[in-house]
Write a structure and sequence with these properties.
single chain, alpha+beta, 41% helix, 13% strand
């Protein structure tokens, strides 16, 4: 399973599992680009190593109101994926700012990280997506 395939499953799962009213976003800063375009993105605020997904959850979605904060998820392919130096640096800096950061190689890792923090919706759709992802190696 590629990182992109895993991310598609995770996003689909987030749609049906996160508390209602939650917002998530992917900042497309991966891939190869022309140098001029990379320079333009950097001038506009793109940070190398930024996590794949940003999640924001409304007050009612947290198990403990005192734990509220942004959640960032960096996804890596199940076999062989590893963090770059930029990704490690950004995650450490985000954690120092009170941001929840996790690196996950499987959808089950994402769920296990979020479950103690959030009131996840236990839908049959979420179960089916998880099973399909696991069957494909993610």
């Amino acid at each position: 399973m590629t990182e992109d395939e895993l991310q598609q499953y995770v996003v689909h799962w987030l749609q049906v599992a996160l508390p209602l009213g939650s917002v998530w976003h992917h900042s497309p800063n991966e891939g190869k680009r022309h140098v001029a375009y990379k320079m333009r993105l950097k001038k506009l605020g793109m940070a190398a190593g930024w996590p794949d997904l940003e999640i924001f959850v409304p007050d009612h979605g947290w198990r403990d109101a005192a734990d509220q904060g942004p959640i960032m998820i960096e996804l890596k392919r199940p076999k062989g994926g590893s963090l770059s130096a930029n990704q490690k640096d950004i995650q450490e800096r985000l954690k120092c700012c009170g941001v929840y950061c996790v690196t996950a190689k499987r959808l089950a890792h994402v769920e296990a990280y979020l479950k103690p923090l959030l009131h996840l919706r236990g839908t049959s759709q979420a179960d089916i997506i998880r099973q399909m992802c696991e069957a494909e190696g993610g």
